[in-house]
Amino acid sequence: MSGITAEERGAQAPLDASADFSEVRDWIALLKPRVMTLVVFTGLVGLAVAPVRLHPVLALTAILCIAIAAGAAGAINMWYDRDIDALMRRTARRPIPAGRIEPGAALGFGITLSVASVTVMGLATNWLAAGWLAFSILFYVLIYTVWLKRRTPQNIVIGGAAGAFPPVIGWAAATGEVSLIPLVLFAIIFMWTPPHFWSLSLWAHGDYARAKVPMLPVTHGARETRRQIVIYTVALVPVTLVPWLVGFSGPAYAAVAAALGTGFLWHALRVAREAQDEAGRSLVQDAAARAAFRYSLYYLFVLFAALALDRLLLG
């Protein structure tokens, strides 16, 4: 008989369950669930505002495929970036650099999910949507992660396209085609990404410098980054009004987009005017940049929600 008593087995069971749950959380963390939330939501809006209605089961399957594909790309990104993740405080506790998941296992996980998501999307909806889904994964992995991220400060500008594909994929899943409106939604996210991410990079520039990632604050300084945040925010606002200008949405959406854009501009100007030293570095721990980053997250959620509600409820 085993030398472990019933009391010892009872005490050991919760520990084993806790360890198992911790491992599950690590695999979920590989999928970058916080990033996935925004990807899924914008993909859902693209599907919801399309002029063709999918069966609810097929619509749910399409959204699930978008989520899994986004997570798969995130897992492959973590596999490739494990060396620089280990150097940055913000990412050092991720499962691979912390040694909780083997790199090869993470890569296999990402590739398997990528193939599965694209295949199911093609079988459940259409192969145009599956093709866009596959292209979004390849763009994020090959164009952004492998090519741009470590080579140019334009990494976020060009690489931002990777996060802008979901509404195009959602629309294509419903309609089997891509037209003006999904491309406008793509453009909104594309223009939103630089001011959103540069606000983060202002207060995380030390991490990027340590890992030698050429983010704009590292290569061109904080002052130029602040100026670019204002420029891209100014360019973003009129793009958000295009759905109303072409008659796809009504005045309710236009009013929300204008109000949100005014708020974003206000935050961008606060970032530009924040107390700085001669190099443009914040003297108040980048409080304005942190606030702008938080606002930009709510901004995109509310903007896309307003478009969906305007389209679905007000026609």
User: Which structural class fits the helix and strand makeup?
Assistant: mainly alpha
**End-to-end CA span:** 72 Å
Shape: flat
> According to CATH, what is the class of the largest domain?
Mainly Alpha
Largest sheet at a glance?
none
- Round the Cα radius of gyration to an integer and report it: 22 Å
Based on the coordinates given, report the CATH architecture of the largest domain.
Answer: Orthogonal Bundle
Low-confidence region ranges: none
CATH superfamily of the largest domain: UbiA prenyltransferase
Walkthrough of the structure:
There is one protein chain. The protein has 315 residues and is mainly alpha-helical. The chain folds into two domains: 23-177, Orthogonal Bundle (Tetracycline Repressor, domain 2), CATH 1.10.357.140; 179-315. The chain is built from 15 helices and no strands. It is flat and about 55 Å long. The protein starts with 5 loop residues before the first helix and ends with a helix. The relative contact order is 0.10. The mean pLDDT is 91.
List the main descriptive attributes of the protein structure presented here:
315 residues; mainly alpha; Tetracycline Repressor, domain 2; 2 domains; 15 helices; 76% helix; 0% strand
Short account of what is shown:
With 315 residues, the chain is mostly helical. Helices cover 76% and strands 0% of the residues.
Task: Explain the layout of strands and helices.
Blueprint: H1 6-30, H2 33-48, H3 56-80, H4 82-85, H5 103-124, H6 127-148, H7 155-159, H8 166-175, H9 180-203, H10 205-211, H11 216-219, H12 221-240, H13 242-245, H14 251-273, H15 287-313
Helix pairs in contact: 2-3, 2-8, 2-15, 3-5, 3-6, 3-8, 5-6, 6-8, 8-9, 9-12, 9-15, 12-14, 14-15
